[in-house]
Each structure stands twice: as C-alpha cells, then as structure tokens.
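ingest -> validate -> predict -> emit
validate: passed (alphabet ok, no gaps, 426 aa)
predict: started
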Amino acid sequence: MNQSDKILLGREERALLIKEYLKDYKTVATLKANMPGSDKNSYLSYLVVNAFSFLISQLGCDKYLYNCNDDGPYLLFLFKEDIAQDLKRKTTHIEENHSLGRFVDIDVYNRIECLSRENKRRCFICDDLSINCMRTNKHSYEMIMAFLEKSVKDYYNEVLNEIIDFSIMSELNLEPKFGLVTPNSIGSHKDMNYQLMIKAKEAIKPRIIDMFFLTIEKKYDFNLIDTLKDIGKSAETDMFKATNGINCYKGLIFNLGIMISAYALKVSRYKPENIFDVATKFSQNLLKDYKFDSLSYGDVAYSKFGVTGVRGEALSGFANIKNGIGLINDLNAKDLLNLLVYYIIHVEDTTLLKRAKDIKFYHEVKEMFSNLDLNSGLDIVKLNDFCIANNLSFGGSADLLVVSVFLKKINNIGVNVFDRNNILNF
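emit:
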C-alpha cells in the first residue's frame, strides 16, 4: 500500500469516528493541519495542531479527542448541543485571523452534513484564492513548505520567548523573598542585583529556545542529548559573559532546559506520556554518564549529607513540581509565594545547604518555613529578615518556581501536558 492510499484510509477512519460520535453528540468539529505533500505526520503538523488546541477550552466542548493516523494528528471537539452554525462562524473567523490560521482545516458537522464556509480559503503565501494557486501550480512545494516552516517557527519563537520571560520575571518580581534577589533588595546576594538578573535572563533565553527547536527536529537519541548538553554549556557561557562571571541561573538552565525539551518532544510527536514522564527520560539520559566532581558543592552535599539537589529533582521526574504545582492557579503573588515556601520545605536545595554551612541548621531553617503563617505579613517579613541576616538563600527552590510558572503557561496554549490520556472529561 502506498502512502496516498494510507492517507485516504486515515481520512476514512476519521470520518467513521465522526459518524460514530454523532450518535451521542449533536455537533462535532475536527481540526487538523493543512499540510501539503505526503508526510502528514511531520513535526510541523503536530505543532500546528498544538497551536490551536486552546480551542478546547475556548469553544467549551463537552469532550475532546486528540489522535493521529496516516493523515496526521487531529483534534475532535464534541458538543451535546446543536451549535454547528454558530461554531462554523467562530472557527472560520479563527482560520482567517490567527497567524497560523491558513495552516489548519476546521470542519464542523451536525447530524445532517459537514457545513461549508461562506468565504473561499486564501493561499498560504499570497492573498489569491487557494484554488487558483493550486490549479496553476503558482507556488512550488518547496516554497510552500519553507513558508509554512518559517511561519510555525516564528510563532513558537514568539510564544516561548514571552512565556519564558514571564516565568522568570514572575519569580524575580516576587517580594519579599527570603534572601533571594527582588526589585528592591539584593537579599543575601552581595554580588547580584535586579538589573544583573535581567541581564542573565536575556542571555539565557535564546539558548533555551534553541533547545526547543533542536528537539522538535531531531530524532530522540544520544546525539540529541549531547547536543542539548552543548547548548546548555553555551547558555552558561553567555550568562557568565553578561554577568561578568556571576552565576545567576545555572540551575535554571538545567531545569528549564530539560522541561522545554520534554515539552518539545511531547508537542511535536504523538506522545501519550505526560510531560513529567518525558522529562524523567531526558534526565536519565542527560545524567547517564555523569562523573562526580569533588570540587562541585552539589557532589559534596550528596556524598557527605545525601542531599541530591538539582540532579535528584530531575531524576525524580520533578516530583516536587508535580506535587506542588496545584498551589498556583491565577499566578498571583500570594500563590507564587505559597509555592516557593512549599519548595523551600520539600526540595533538597544545595544552595541553602551551602549557605547554612551545617546540616543541623539546614533542617532548622526548613522547620521555620514549615511553621510559617503565610497569612501573616509580619511573620513573612521577620523570616525574610532572618534569612538575609544569616546569608541564606534558596536558588534551587526559586528555579523550580520558574519552571512551575512555565508549565502552567504552556499548558494553557496547547494539549494538556500533564495528562497521560487523550480523552478528557470536563
């Protein structure tokens, strides 16, 4: 069977599925990438579909299905009410106004028919009717694919840049913050300040986004892992150059690098695992050949006190994030502070241990946070002052707070990264 026949069978399979769902639902909408050529399952198809899965919540469907076959990945939106006419108007507007709208086909069905568009579709590249360009072969396949690829990558570059920036700044702007740098305090960091942290952020952002684009394009193997390591080292070099050798975000490069790579793998392929499962796989392979270094405080902390730090968190599949991320809903300052305190209590933070200089004092500090009344502004200020007076800080916990905000934001723009299943009940 050739690829064209496989694609046709995929379309028939989806059509039968729609017919079956219309027995129980009055309206069904389908969304798939409008992908030229025979490779309907390229990473571009998955990225396009993911970019529009915000419709799951926006359209208010009763249930959705995320699936794939030889005709590519697709979403089905299922509605108990007969809203086909209104839904067709809404989805046509999205196709015509979203920056990637010309790269998707959204079909709407009721129990009688598949509804037609009022306006004919426009070409990817020019503003002529697409049917005219197809009839005359106005644009080559290579030209169309190059335009599509650039458009999709530009979209994700812009979105990820905004989300990473928002995530880092959400942590950085939180105040007071128990010895960590804030807009109005250097906390316990005599070598850092707010402006320096922003310089470091700007230096590492492009490299972290590079990890995303590398992962979507490459086969998952140890060549990919080695290249990601190299990008991480480049991010560190760029950071140190921007900060004159001050380590502002080395731990964040590691943590966010793993998570954005796991996100890239999940949204550019059909991955039933949740993002924590994928991140665990990345972590295990990244750290497979790790060699302990007696000059590294993280390694000293592990060998002397059994404190695993950032590597232990990654190898656990970011278990503390998995357990704590539900504490933030609207990403307001109160929720973020609550989650930071949760991480300070639960995370094996080598930054704290190094500054505490004593394992007994390390655990005493954690106990103080366990007893902290988060509803008392005075208690929060007192504990913040105590941390600064004792030169304490919580870099590992702050890094996980940034990653948590990142995860909450990306989960709002695409398929559910936290869930293992493809059908969810609302």
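The first helix runs from residue 3 to 21.
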